[in-house]
Design brief:
By secondary structure, this protein is α/β, with parallel strands linked by helices. It is 56% helix and 12% strand. The chain is globular.
Length: 258
Amino acid sequence: MIKKLWMIIFAAVAVIFAVGYGVSEYWPDQNQDKQVHKPVRKVSYHITALGDSLTEGVGDQKNSGYAGLAVHALRNEKNVQKVTLANFGHKGDTSTDLLKVLKRPDVQMKIRQSNLIFMTIGGNDLVQVLKANFMDLKTSDFTVRQRIFSSHLNQIFTEIRRLNPSARIYYFGLYNPFEDYLGNANRDFVPILDHWNANNEKIAKRYNRVSFIPTADIFKGKGDSLLYEDHFHPNKKGYTLMAGRLLKLIKQDRPGQT
């Protein structure tokens, strides 16, 4: 009798476990299916733009050139909370002028507050050589000026890093706007331009968190479609291509977030 009772109890327990397992299979814990949605971390960009007429946006005043186009694109990104821009680009500025700009308290304050810095400089340094020696242009004329510019560029990066050790710096290389005017002289000028760009890129690599952005290939053979009516500054299409390269690097780097 006792043995039979134990068999009944064992069978009942087995049924309870079986039913319980079946219930859990058909109605699992609802928490198991809940996906944890982490909140998207918003990024803020505080930008200081430095340099010459390309940073100012001459040739595309409506959109403020590559800097304005880049800022507009960043503001439209879903994960971007805020974008600020302080643009100190000025038409005609050389590396000597930029060193003076970097001494201004308002510029220094903005650099300290930035996590991105855009920069174009060097084109007017190169043009000065062309203007001063156009009738008797020699490679040595560019060599002397390049030494001076290299020293200035090192000083510029050093000063920016002193003011802000961590901001990502994007420095654009030079392009040749004179292709259609120099004629056979292009054979001599293009190697000089390439040497300047290679040297500037080498200098940029000495500093932490500095990216050199080539532009010569963007405009080569496309002056009619990518340059403004002055045939020197980019038009909207030209600036858009510059901004595209800049934005690609920014997205890869994803610098300081606030």
